[in-house]
Amino acid sequence: MAPYGLMSPAQMVALTFRRYLHETGNDPAHLADIALAFREHAQRNPRAVYFGRPLTREQYADSRLIADPFRAADCCLETDGACALILTTRERAQDLRSSPVRVLAAAQASGPGWGQGPMGSHNMPLEDYASVNSRLLAREIFAMADLAPHDIDVAQIYDAFTGVVTMALEDFGLCERGSAPDFIAGGGLRWPHGDLPCNTAGGLLSESYLQGLNLVVEGVRQMRGESTAQVAGAQTCLVTSGGANAHKSALILAAEIA
Predict the structure, then answer these.
(1) Which residues contact residue 189 at a Cβ distance below 8 angstroms, ignoring those fewer than 6 apart?
(2) Suppose 105 and one of 109, 121, 145, 209 were both cysteines; which one would form an S-S bond, judging by CB atoms 3.0 to 4.6 Å apart?
(3) pTM exceeds cut of 0.90
(4) Domain containing 121 — which CATH number?
């Protein structure tokens, strides 16, 4: 794609999101609400790169255009850092100091004919082009967990770019097709009063970009009741992976019930 000028992920993903806007008749104004919500969550998280650096709607609007409609504030951080997870048996986890968290489901899948998607070819099937290639994955993971999208209490959605969040909400059945922008603009992702608080540590946009693993760590914190933006009574958490290429993965975590 380089001879045609596609030299960065922001440019590549902007094309798929522009197609989404065309197909659904939505406009990109709601993207500001994603960036603002996640930056607001980061203000409660001392680990976040943007902790102590709030974002206003005016600052969002003034951030430079990177690849229409994505502005600088729509693009994730570049971060050096690390995080880790320890997985063990349920029996052994009962003896540990920290409250165990159950992995209800974990899956990896790709829609047919996707190839490398916008990161490699842009030759995806038209009916799946304006998506994050997670519709098949969503069916698999909810069936594995024996849950439905409305059973999810909190989500950690891969947010390399704000538009990826919009499309992921619909791919995973958390919003009906074309309805995610209104849900977002209405505060649906915000802690503490949103219907589905999302990226409660700040996400890749405002906490750090650690290939998305920090989203899993925050999901664990939520299920333990240890998040800096704890969702009251949360028992289930959906965590999703990258939004621009093949072989998507996702987790559904659950709090351990004594």
Answers:
(1) 33, 34, 37, 38, 165, 183, 196, 197, 198, 199
(2) 145
(3) yes
(4) 3.40.47.10
